[in-house]
Amino acid sequence: MATTADMRTGLIIKLDGSLYSVVEFGQNKTARAAAKVWAKLKGVDNSRTIEHTWNSGDTIHPVRVERRPYQFLYKDDTGFNFMDNETFEQITLGENMIERPELYKDGQEVFVMVNTESDLPMSVELPPNIVLEVTYSEPGVKGDTATRTLKPATVETGATVMVPLFVDAGELIKIDTKTGAYVERVKA
Length: 188
Fold this sequence. Notes:
The protein is mostly beta strands. It has three domains: 2-60, SH3 type barrels, CATH 2.30.30.30; 65-125, CATH 2.40.50.140; 129-186, CATH 2.40.50.140. Helices cover 0% and strands 53% of the residues. The protein is built from no helices and 16 strands. The strands form four sheets. Strands 9-8-7-10-11 form a five-stranded antiparallel sheet, with no helix packed on it. A five-stranded antiparallel sheet has the order 14-13-12-15-16, with no helix packed on it. A four-stranded antiparallel sheet has the order 2-3-4-5, with no helix packed on it. A hairpin with a 4-residue loop joins strand 13 and strand 14. The termini are far apart. The mean pLDDT is 88.
């Protein structure tokens, strides 16, 4: 069994019958009272975000989660379809389990988080950065480069990303999947 001393960011715990991921945590210590451990938790199997406090040393119930490599195949009416890279099994997941669904393209490598107790998928994560081609972008205004001015650009998945003025259609760009922001141009 684990205690609050084992708390860390990204840990998935079972609390009141639901699974939560630890987003942030800390400890409050006062001279008169026992130390308390608090955590900001994001629901894995629900869309709630909560804060919870424990006494220092209390028991917590972590859930073992595996990150398995999968490949995104396609999206249809039933949801997003993925294939296990080792067993070639296919699974279909709803959009509520997908992180940044607008950035998925066919053949994209992803990681499916699987609860090892029930062997059920919990969520899907993209790699930290992905490379996509810009399909449409307005031309930049000449002389408007004194500040870091951004313009909207549409990438091959249909998502809109704010890019610097010098990025044109047909170029490859690297996108941060956590924020959905432009990182840099990529040479082909």
